[in-house]
Amino acid sequence: MNAGESYKVLVLGDSNVGKTCLMHRFCDETYYDTYISTIGVDYKQKIIQLDDKPVKLQIWDTAGQERFRTLTTAYYRGAMGILLVYDVTNLDSFDHLTYWLKNIQENASPDVIKVLAGNKCDNDSLRAVDKADGEKIAECYDMPFFEVSCKMDVNVEDAFQALAKMIKERSKYAGAFGLRDETPREKCSPLFEKSFAESTRKCSSC
């Protein structure tokens, strides 16, 4: 089956949040207990149906390790959608969303579609990030939000489908959108707003 349209999608987040697992679950419908962290960039593609028409998703799983983050910026070019992932059992990965949102703001198209996903929602015994916290950040940055589980196959398909549908809608009006203010709105929590401001503040010597 040939796809008429093709969308470039990035999967971003820290290296230990299960991005590779998400990509394999969605593209291959498989799950493994262990994955080797992505070195540089991994790539897969999948053809899905949108409004009864085939669309190819070109999915790039970018390395989350700090030493590869400069490499990640090169892959923003042409990206139409971003799945931003954190681990609900790892508070650091949630706190690092400030870095990734800043990185997206600086490198991606101002009209790139973003979806936030909290992975490993099946592991309630180790949960460190409440669902309400994820919802609050998603609302703040006007992103759809899903808690997902690769292991139990919860909401993985839904998250990618939502991203693709929003890209399709945006592509109908290509060029009609100007720059958007990506700084936190007043409804963001003061703590997150302070963290974002600190992450985007230039040094005194700049």
List the helices and strands and how they pair.
Blueprint: E1 5-12, H1 19-28, E2 41-50, E3 53-62, H2 69-74, E4 81-87, H3 91-95, H4 97-107, E5 113-119, H5 131-140, E6 145-147, H6 156-171, H7 190-200
Key features of this structure:
206 residues; alpha/beta; Rossmann fold; 6 strands; 33% helix; globular; nucleotide-binding
Write up this protein:
The protein has 206 residues and is α/β, with parallel strands linked by helices. The chain has one domain (6-174, 187-201): Rossmann fold (3-Layer(aba) Sandwich), CATH 3.40.50. Helices cover 33% and strands 22% of the residues. It has seven helices and six strands, in the order βαββαβααβαβαα. The protein has a six-stranded mixed beta sheet with strand order 2-3-1-4-5-6, with helices on both faces. The radius of gyration is 17 Å and the shape is globular. Residues 175-186 and 199-206 have low confidence and may be disordered. One of its GO terms (molecular function) is GTP binding. Keywords: GTP-binding, Lipoprotein, Nucleotide-binding, Prenylation. InterPro entries: P-loop_NTPase, Small_GTP-bd, Small_GTPase, Small_GTPase_Rab.
Helix content: 25-40%
Mean pLDDT: 81
The total beta strand count reads 6
Outline: globular
Number of domains: 1
**Distance between the first and last residues' Cα:** 52 Å
Structural class: alpha/beta
Can you write the helix and strand succession as a string? EHEEHEHHEHEHH
Largest sheet: 6 strands, mixed
